[in-house]
Amino acid sequence: MSPRVSIIIVKYQAEKELAACLASLKNYHVIVVDNNKINRGYAVGNNLGAKQAKSEYLLILNPDTVVSPGAIESLTSFLDSHPKAGIVAPLLLDPSGRPYPLQGTRELTPLTGLFALSFLNRLPNPISRRYWLADWDKKDPCQVDVVPGTAFLIRRNLFNRIGRFDEKFFLYFEESDLCRRVRLKGWEIYMYPPAKIMHHWGASTPKSPRIQAIFSASRFYYFRKHFGLFWAVVVHLVCSFSLLWTAIILGTFLRFYRLPSLMPFIGDQAWFYLSARDALLGRGLPLLGITASITWLHQGPLWTYFLVPLIAHPVLPAVFTSVLGVVSVYLIYFLGGWSASLLLATLPLAVLQSRMPYHTSLIPLISIIYFLLLRRRRDFLAGLFLGFLYQLHLLTFIFWPLLFLRLRPRQIAGFLLGILPFLIVGPVQTFGIFAWIAKHALTGFGGSTISTAYLVVLLVPAILIASWFLNRLPKLFRILLIMIYLGFSIWNLEFTLGPSFSSRLSLSKAIFSQSRTTDPELVMDGPGSKFRSYSMPYEYLVWRLSRSTPPSGTHSRFLIHESSQTFEVLK
User: Fold this and answer.
1) Which residues have CB under 8 Å from 154's CB, separation 6+?
2) What pLDDT, on the 0 to 100 scale, is given for residue 1?
3) pTM (2 d.p.)
């Protein structure tokens, strides 16, 4: 004879709590679904358990609970005596024996979601009070719309008839979805205080950025499923307004503040611009970018490919990299939480790199995407983005050992595709960085310069390490440290390098007005004049000006004084 109640427990970690739970269930039919090796999610786990059950009722139960004597019998008797009731849930107690203040709710709609699941819940309002059943004394049975997913009894036939749990919910909001479908079938749902279960809140789902991300994704799916995409987006935006949104707003402001006039525009940037110009004029896509500080090696051509459709206006690439910088602030949240987002949003180096359309500007975003793909075991894509990183800066070879942590053919294939231009050029370009490192290691790196580009390579790992430490501090202390940091970093922010873009553009217009050719000879003075790229910002800007207006001047050679933003005509 099959038991009347089958208890389904989905286990993920929480080993000690599960042992205590099972000890309180010695005389019952218990089905434990082990999610430790492969975490299928809470909904999938419960559905797997339900397929094994042959009983009249199913008790969905978290592993971090202890069932009071007689609680299951009380719940069973309630459903026996209430034929219209499809679900009944016990009263949840904390370890000290006091009822949790929030358990059981009214229907989750866009209106209740906006007020009860967002910062608006902290403000006194009748919508939140009604949703959270604030007036329920937790002594008498109460008809509700949604019960906690921690513990509830449901008729097995009803559970199967409505299609069980929606397995697109990995964790959270699956009970809201299930209860909604139960009520739409005409069944009633109750909280029943005489039945009591103790719950170690959060023991089975420890807080982390990943868990918070899963919560947000499940909330979004619930509202999209039942109320459409529009309301899903609205609720998501309002409910997500937090320290993450503070980081996004602050990061957006710092990256776009006076960008058209203060955009950094140094020589090596313009070198890439000119390379993209040549490709745009039909001279072919290059297999290499500009030379690195290692003069016999080149950066990859990836940034040149991005520039080709963007150089119609010189500021447009800066808008592009600034947008990607804001995207990076959002995505790093899923690796390091809101502290990582705030650090990336305001770090002077990160802000300047986002505002400067350069091959290193993409490194933070590509690094974040690479780490996310690596964590999610998307082998081919992870390898591909690792290859992209090497194209953006040769020093990113320091990430190559990560290939061997999960050495898979798909990852290697993706990586080789990512560095394909280097492979076509030859092994010297592909692996020459190691010869450079060996040479300088033997000489103690004497005379080497530390470029900010090197620091950009390490930016994301450094932020993730810093946020790892910050996330283990008490929240108040963490916020205090970050506030001190914000004051220091914003005080030391620089929005440009050297003369502003607007001043370089004005000087280029003055030169062009006196030039009789689209390609005048530009001679620079000053400490940087020994580098060929020093004059390239003006070469690009004069060329761009010539695209709309033919030259009409009388001179072809100019001496530019960069420091004073003046020039002389050379005969």
Assistant:
1) 57, 58, 60, 86, 87, 182
2) 44
3) 0.66
